[in-house]
Amino acid sequence: MTFITKLSRDEVGATAIEYGLIAALIAVAAIAAMQGLGNELKSTFNSTSSAMSGANAA
Q1: Rounded Cα distance, 44 and 51, in Å
Q2: Nearest CA to 17 among 7, 5, 25, 6?
Q3: Burial (0-12, 13-18, 19+ Cβ within 10 Å), 19
Q4: d(Cα 58, Cα 55) in Å, to the nearest integer?
């Protein structure tokens, strides 16, 4: 019986699960932000590259 009461009071596993969920949420937010930023950077580099190609041709 004392084992069951100790087990019900043990919160170490719950804390680890909470930290895991927080880390997963941060990872999902970071991936979403990087995808949007990546598309913007691709557009910027493409326009810069074409501008530099045009300057070299002239």
Answers
A1: 11
A2: 25
A3: exposed
A4: 5
DSSP single-letter state for residue 14: H
* CA angle centred on 20, ends 28 and 30, rounded to 5°: 20
d(CA 29, CA 37): 12
Q: What is the dihedral of CA 18, 19, 21, 23, to 10 degrees?
A: 170
Task: Please write the tens of the pLDDT for every residue from 1-58.
Answer: 687 777 667 666 678 888 999 999 999 999 998 988 888 888 999 999 998 987 766 5
Three-state DSSP at 58 gives: coil
Distance separating alpha carbons of residues 9 and 11, to the nearest angstrom: 6
d(CA 20, CA 28): 12
